[in-house]
Structure prediction request, 818 residues.
Amino acid sequence: MADHILDIRNLKIEATVHPPDGDSFDVTIVDGISLTLGKGRVLGLIGESGAGKSTIGLSAMGYGRGGVRITGGEVFLNGRDILKGGVKRLRRLRGREVSYVAQSAAAAFNPAHRLMDQVVEATLRHGVADRREAEQRAIGFFRKLGLPDPENFGRRFPHQVSGGQLQRAMTAMALCSEPDLIVFDEPTTALDVTTQIDVLAAIKDAIADTGVAALYITHDLAVVAQVSDEIMVLRHGKMVEHGETRQIIEAPREDYTKALVSVRSIEHEEKAPSTRPILAVERVTAAYGGTVKVLQDVSVEIHPGQTLAVVGESGSGKSTLARVVTGLLPPMEGKITFDGRSLTPKLKDRSKDDLRELQMIYQMADVAMNPRQTVRTIIGRPLEFYFGMRGAEREKRVKELLDEIEMGTGFIDRYPAELSGGQKQRVCIARALAAKPKLIICDEVTSALDPLVAEGILKLLLRLQKEEQVAYLFITHDLATVKAIADSIAVMYRGNVVRYGPKSKVLTPPFDDYTDLLLSSVPEMHVGWLEQAIRHRRMESAGN
Amino acid sequence: MKRPRIPPSALVGLIITGVYFLAAIFAGWIAPYGFADVVGDVWAPSSAQFLLGTDSIGRDLLSRMIYGGQTTIAIATAATVLSFATGSILGFLAAVVGGWVDQLLSRFVDLMMSIPILIFALVILSVMPVTIVTLIIVMGLLDSTRVFRLARGVAVDITVMDYVEAARLRGEGRLWIIFREVLPNALSPLVSEMGMRFIFQVLLLSTLSFLGLGVQPPLSDWGGIVKENKDGIVYGVTAALYPAIAIATLAISVNLVADWVLTRTTSLKGGRGG
Prediction:
C-alpha cells in the first residue's frame, strides 16, 4: 500500500434528488469503484456525462459537490484514509498533497487578482516555500509549460491571457506546491483543437518531468490515449473496463468500450453539386456595431439536399455567418440568394415563406426550447403558425414528427427538463422539420452531446436529408463530424473563408497553412498521435 | 404526488401571514366591537372585556387592530397588484422591443427612482385629496418603477435565450413573445418579489399614516393606530406597541414565505430563477 499515492477502495457515492413534484429519493452516482495509482502514473477516467468520473476525481480530494455524499469505501492518499479525520486535516492536504485542475480555467481564476498571486497561493499557504522561492518556481513552470514571457506572465490578470494560456497557468498552479497527485478534470475540453494540442503536450511534459501522479478525467478517448498510462472506462457510476492504454484503444474487451473506440463510423457518399444552389452567399461582409469586421468577403453555396460544413475555431465567424443568413445580423455588404430569390437583409422584412423554408437548430438544445412548453406545443407551434393546423390535424402531425425523429408519441406531454440531451436535440430537429424547410442551419448541434448520442443525431440528420431533400448549413469545430456528413466544406479563419470546395478536394493535400494546422490538431485514436502531431508541426514551421 | 416538505421557517411565515389575512377578511365577524365605537375609558388596561385594552379615546383596541389590519392589508395588496401590473408589462415591453422604447421607459424610471419614494409620496399626497383610491394609485405607481427594473432585467435575460430567438426566427409577433415565451419563465422571480413589494407597501402605508398623510380618521390602519396612541408611551401605556408588533411580524412572516418560494422555484431550475 505504501507505494501507492492514491488507493480508492470500493467507493460508493450517493446524492439525493429532489424532483419538482414527487418525493425525494437517493441515487447512486459512483458504485463500487476501486483503483490504485502509483508514483508518476497517469490514470485516465473516461465516460459519458453522468458516468461519475468527476465525482470520483473530487473524492480523491475528499470532496463531494453540493448534495453529494460519500457513503461507502475508503480513499487512501499516501497511506492515510482521508475520509476520516475531518475538515482540518483535509485542509492541510488539499493543495499540498493533491491539487486540482478544473475544466473552465476562466471561471476558476479570480478575475480581480493577478495570476502570480493565485498560482503561488496554495504554496505559500501551506508554507512549502517563501514568496520569492515560490515565484521562482512558478516562473519555472510557466517556462516549462511554454507560456510567453515567463518572467512577467504572472503580472497579468486572467482576462489578459488567452484560454489556452489560462489553462496552462492553472496547471502551473496545481504543480507549484509540488503535490503528489493532480486531478485534471477535462482540462482541454473547452479549448479549440489547435490550442488543445499545445496544452496537452505541455501537461504531458510537466507530468513526466515532475513525476507527479495524475487522474485525467475526460470524455474524449482520443485525448486520454495521448496522456495516460492506463484507462478506466466508466458508465453509470460503475466500472466497465480497466487496462493499459494500448489495450483499451487497440483491443477493447467490453462492447461499450468497443462502441466508444469505433465512434464516428458513419459513411457518407459525397454528392455532386447541382446546377442551381438553394443558398448562395456572395461576397458578404458583416460586423457587430460597425467597426470590427467579423466576416470579410465570404462567398459560399449550398445545393439542394446537400450539406455544407463550415469549420473553424471559436471566433472564426462561423456562427456570425449563420446569423447573417437568418437575418439576425444584416450584412454591411454582399448578397444572399435563397432558392432563386434574393433574401432581404433584415429579419423583419422577410416573408413568412422565407422564414419557414430556412430553419435553425441550436447547439444547446436545453435553452433552445421554452422550459414551460410541452413537446406538443414546441413541435406544434410551427405547424399552427405556418400551416394553420389545429386540433386533431395538428396532433396527428406532431405524432408523425415524433415518429420521424425515432422518439415515439409517448413524449408528447413531456417538458424539456424531462428529456435527455439527445432527446432534446431530436425535438429541436422535429420543430425545424415541422416547417417543411428547404435549408436547416445546424449550429454546433452535436458539440454538447456525448459521442454515442451525437452519432445517433448525425445518423438521424443524414436519414432525414435523404428522405426530405433538405439542405444543411452545418457549423462545427469538430472535424470528425465534418468528415462524416459534409458534401462540401468551407474552412474559416478570422472571418475569412480560407479554403472552400467539395469535401474530397478540401481534405486532400496540398493544404494551406491553416487547414493543415487544423487537420493535424484533431486527436486521433491511437497511442503516440500527440508526439507525431507535434513533430509534424515543428517540421512545418521549420519549412517556412 | 406528494409535495416536498415545507421548512419550519416558511411554515411559521405561512401561519402568521394566514392568520393576519383571515382576520382581515373576516374582520366584521370576529371583531368584538365596531372600529369607531367608544366603549370604555381612555387607555384602559387589558381585561376580559377589552383584551388589548382601549385606545386614546376609549375605543376597543383589539377591534381597532382587526379593522386596521383589514385596511392595511387591503390597501397594500391593491397597491402591489397595481405596481405589478404596470411595472411588469412595461418592463417586458422594454426588454422585448428594445431600442428607443427601452431607452425612454428606462430613463424615465431612472428619473423617478432618483427621488425617494416616501418624499415623492408625501409631496403628491399633500397637494391631492387623500382618499383610499389616490393612496393606492400613488403607492402603486411609485413602486412600479422597482417592479419595472426587475421585470425588465429578468426579461432581458430571457430574451437572449435561444428559444426566444427561435420564436423570432419563426416570425412570431411581440404579443406571443411577451405572453408565451417571456412571461411563463419570468413568473417565479416575479412572484417571490411580489412578497417583498407587498411588505414595502405595508411599511410605506404605515409610515404615511403615521405622518398623517395616509388613511384618514375615523378609519385607521396599523400605522394610524400607532400615531393615535404614541403619546401613551410616555405614561407607560403599551397601546402603540401592538400595531407596531403587528406591522413587524407581518413583514417578517411574508418575508419568510417569499424566501421559501424563491429558493424552491430557483432550485428546480438549476440555481437560477428564469
